[in-house]
Write a structure and sequence with these properties.
Layout: H1 2-20, E1 25-29, H2 34-47, E2 51-57, H3 58-64, E3 72-78, H4 80-89, E4 99-105, E5 111-116, H5 118-124, H6 132-148
Antiparallel strand pairs: 1-5, 2-3, 3-4, 4-5
């Protein structure tokens, strides 16, 4: 009886820990400082022919209102060739496009790169079978891996 209670407690703790993670967010540890990670991501995005629509420095924004925030930057990027096919499957996916990637430094000083999993976005919009999803996943995954690698 005690063993089954311990197993149940462990399972509940694991489930609540998993539930606290952002749904559909893929996170990779970076081997670089936050600014260097974002600079590398932006450079790779441009090299691959994608448009950069905005680079938002959330820490700088926080400083403008006398708040402190560890390094946190958002890159908004993409192109119609990648996004339009997803919106053809589900036009509401336009709320999640263009693509976004976030670079942040956690409380321990570890830098992370995170982005929305295209499969999660497709599922969210009822387009899980959309043929472009796998291509988007591969493209984003390759971009993210290249960014965080040494």
């Amino acid at each position: 009886m005690k063993l089954s209670s311990a197993i149940l407690s462990f399972a509940l703790a694991a489930a609540s820990a998993a539930a606290s993670a952002a749904d559909g967010l893929i996170e990779l540890k970076s081997q670089h400082a936050a600014k260097a990670t974002m600079d590398k991501l932006e450079e790779l995005v441009k090299q691959r022919g994608l448009s950069v629509f905005a680079r938002i420095d959330h820490a700088a924004g926080a400083a403008k209102v006398n708040k402190s925030l560890r390094a946190t930057e958002l890159l908004i990027f993409g192109n119609p060739q990648g996004g339009t096919p997803l919106m053809e499957c589900a036009q509401t996916a336009g709320i999640d496009l263009p693509l976004k990637a976030l670079v942040w430094e956690d409380a321990a000083g570890q830098v992370w790169l995170g982005y929305n999993d295209p499969a999660y976005l497709a599922q969210r919009h009822g387009a899980a079978a959309c043929p472009v999803v796998e291509n988007l996943r591969k493209a984003l995954g390759g971009l993210a891996e290249a960014t965080v690698a040494r």
